[in-house]
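How it folds
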Amino acid sequence: MVEQKVFKSILWLFLLINNVYSIGLNYDIKIKGIEPMTDFKDPFCDLKDVKMKKLNKTHYTIDGIYTILREDIPSDDLLMSIHIALKKGNGYIESSLVQLHKRKYCDMWDNEQFLMPDVKRHIQCISNSKNSTELLCPPLVGTYKLANYVPQYKVPANMPEGRWRFIFEYYKNDELIGGYKAYADFKREIMADDIF
């Protein structure tokens, strides 16, 4: 009995030291890249200074300054699409696990409970057109910092392991006005409940 407890304690310590287990996640998510989309006629935001930042030996965060360039878009006209795709061979195959097509951005910002609360915790307002530190929607023209963002949400248990591409697009009605692509590796973790 004592030997079994010692073995479990050693195994648990090994998993923590080697960054295999992250509290609250059932997948180890490693950010592999971020790629802002550019060349928009009248862009909504400038994400070119949002980069990957090394967190530790094996993981990166998304970190940097971004600028909201327009506040002339009514909340009902500001839309967002999210598409994900799994890498297979030389390309990516779109997945139906997450497909949001032109949803009202402010409705997602205010009400969505899967992704937005975690994102909001990592955004700081540096300056904006009304000298407000409140994160409003639609966002005010200004400069914001995304600080050390690492996805901290539960992943559906049926999500396949592998390299995933996430495409986030912003629209003013039907006009594409901004976006970025993010890449991450998902690997199923050994959870504490699986061990003990």
In short: The two ends are 13 Å apart (CA to CA). Strands lie at 27-36, 45-46, 50-54, 60-68, 78-88, 91-104, 123-128, 142-149, 162-172, 175-188.
